[in-house]
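During the reporting period the student researcher (J.K.) took over the structure-prediction task from the postdoctoral fellow and processed the backlog of single-chain submissions. One of the processed entries is reproduced below for the supervisory committee.
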Amino acid sequence: MSRLTKASSNQEILAVLNETADAVGKVLRANQDWSLSGLRDTQYAVDLRADAAALEVLTSAGVAVLSEESEFTGEFADDGLCVVMDPLDGSTNASRGVQWFATALCAIDKDGMRAGLVVNQANGHDRYWATAGGGAFHNGVAMRPSGCVELREAVVGISGIPKQRPKWGQFRALGAAALDICLVADGVIDAWIDFNTHGVWDYLASALICQEAGAFIVEHQDRNLVVHEHSQRRTPIVAATSELLASVRQVRAQHN
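J.K. obtained the following C-alpha cells:
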C-alpha cells in the first residue's frame, strides 16, 4: 500500500478508507461476542477488535488516527493526514440485533476535510461517501437532500430526548449518528438534532457528506465541527434547507 500524505488525491484517500471499512466489516461479520470490554462504559470487546483491524490498515498507509476507541495514534504532521474514525458507530444497536450500525471514517489535513465514508455494516452494502469539492454519493448515485422547508412537515432524526415535544411532523431515533445524518444528505429524512453531545468521530464523515450533497450542518453553539482532541464534544444540527435549519436550531435552543 502506498503511503498517504496531504499531496495524495482524494480518490487515493477514499480507496484507503474503503479498505479500512472492509477490514472492520470482516471482524463484525465473524463476531459472536457482545460482552463489554470492561475498560469504559458501553464499550464492547468487539469495538476494540474492530479498532485494531482499522488501525492496521491506516497505520500502514502512514496516517495519524483519532479513534473513539484508541484515542490518538501517530503524528499529525503539517504535510500529513489524520483519519477520524468510529469503527463501530451504533454498537448498542449491533449488540441488540438492530440492523443499523456503521463504520465512519473522515480523512482531514491541517486545512480541513478531504474525504469521508460511512458504511452500513449491518448490510455491508450501503456506502455513503464524499470528497472535498467532488460531491456526495450513496452507492455511486449522487445524493440530494429533500428540500423540506417547514418544520410541521419534516421527519426529524434525533439523538436524545427533547424536554418538550416540538411541532415537527414526525421524528425518528435510530441510534447511529453517522448513518442518521447521512439520511438527511440523501433526502430520506429532513433534519437531525443532537439533544446531547457527540465526539467528532460520530459526525465528521457525515458532515462532509452533507456539505457536498447540499444539506446544512452547523454546531449548536457555532463552534468548529472539526476538532483534533479526543476529549472535545460538539452538538451538530443538520437540515435539508436553510429555512428548516433555522427552525430546528430554534428547537435545539429551547432544549437548553
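The committee noted the following: The chain has a mean pLDDT of 97.
J.K. will present the remaining backlog at the next meeting.
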